[in-house]
Amino acid sequence: MKYVKSLASIIFIVLFSALTVVGIVYLSSRNSSVGDSEGVYSSGILFAMDTTLDITIHGLDEKAAKADVDAAVGLIKRIEALTSRFEADSDVLKINANAGRGAVVVDPIVIEMVERSAAMSGICNGAFDFTIAPVVSLWGFYNKEFRVPASGEIDSVLPLVDYRQVAADKGNNTVMLLKPGMELDLGGVAKGYAVEKVCGLLKERGVENALVNFGGAVGAIGGRIDGEPWVIGIKDPRGGAGDIIGRLELEDGYVSSSGDYERYFEKDGLRYFHIFDPGTGRQPEGVIAVTVAGPSSLEADILSTAVMVLGVEEGTRTAEESGGFELVVIDSSGTVSYSPGMKNNYSITVDSRI
Ligand code: AMP
Ligand code: MG
């Protein structure tokens, strides 16, 4: 069995200079038209939440930009410590341990993530469900002991997957999973949430031109210092590391991508990836990659995961109805399609098929 976990943002979102592809993020600022000039700072590739993070800040001296990056990393570590399924003592583990038993007092960050995720789950008709954990666990994506479960096993955990059985109480700062055996997995939303909070923090600190790229969740503050927009490469889902099929310009906004190429294993010639249809407990079919652009990061992150499940038509409709989100989606035949408003709202060019 072969397991692949791409270094998501390394091969997934690629920055360019104004005209040429220069490769991965941490090289781009050095090779961009701004070059090595003063006022261009790149964090290089950092690791958090089991994925890659890089932050580019323009317009500040190195010392100030580095302090901003350090503050951002501190915030991400805090969000990770609260929401991870792998960090002992995280709020998520405490909530899971008390499923069906009692409400757990948690950090307001966790309440906010649960409440906003639940609202989006409703909008997505349950295609996004942050109680998907028992399914993810069965397929071995947590302990990396990958397996294809028997139908009976899947059927037995499906009743545990239901975001409506999560009670969040903002007044008392508590969360409770109502059924024993339920478990939270905030993996489909944590990166988008973190990018939103990091962009907020950087703006508060006076940053006016920055790009935050966190494992496929991207946030832009302003554009580049030379007045040009940030340019984001859209990965070819069947290409090699660094291969892209298009580019999207971004200023003051958010982009999130999901796909069947990010984490998967292969068995008997079939690809089994890390996103599941909460209705079936199996990988959805029909979409292999989606990139969502829009005005808020958490919602873009959720939508990108949900569109993998919803399929091209319903996914496109849901994204547009969610308030200003546009998408480009690649179906399993390799055909690329756009939401109707994408080209009016963004400068984007993508090959018509892969
Ligand atoms: P993303 O990379 O943002 O698309 O999120 C994928 C991650 O979200 C997976 O690794 C799982 O932890 C989790 N996940 C998988 N399927 C779903 C789903 N249908 N709804 C919510 N979270 C999911
Ligand atoms: Mg997501």
Provide key terms for this protein.
354 residues, alpha+beta, 4-stranded antiparallel beta sheet, 11 helices, globular, binds magnesium ion
User: H/E series, N to C?
Assistant: EHEHEEEHHEHHHEEHEEEEEEEEHHEEHE
The global form is: globular
Query: How far apart are the first and last residues' alpha carbons, in Å?
Result: 26 Å
- Helical content stands at 25-40%
Which small-molecule ligands are present, each listed once? Answer: adenosine monophosphate, magnesium ion
| Coarse structural class | alpha+beta
Largest beta-sheet details:
9 strands, antiparallel
Number of helices: 11
User: Mean pLDDT across all residues, rounded?
Assistant: 90
Hey, roughly how much beta strand do the residues contain?
A: 25-35%
Give the low-confidence spans: 7-36
Structural account:
By secondary structure, the protein is an alpha+beta fold. The chain has 11 helices and 19 strands. The chain has helices spanning 8-12, 25-31, 62-83, 91-97, 108-123, 133-138, 151-157, 190-204, 297-310, 312-321, 342-345, and strands spanning 2-5, 13-15, 40-42, 46-48, 51-58, 104-105, 166-169, 174-177, 209-214, 217-221, 230-235, 244-250, 253-259, 263-267, 270-273, 287-294, 326-331, 336-338, 348-350. Strands 3, 4, 5, 9, 10, 13, 16, 17 and 18 form a 9-stranded antiparallel sheet that branches. A 4-stranded antiparallel sheet has the order 2-11-12-19. A 3-stranded antiparallel sheet has the order 1-14-15, with no helix packed on it. A hairpin with a 2-residue loop joins strand 9 and strand 10. The protein is globular and about 60 Å long. It starts with a strand and ends with a strand. The relative contact order is 0.14. Mean pLDDT is 90; it is low at 7-36. The structure holds adenosine monophosphate and magnesium ion (MG). The site of adenosine monophosphate (AMP) has 18 residues, from helix 9.
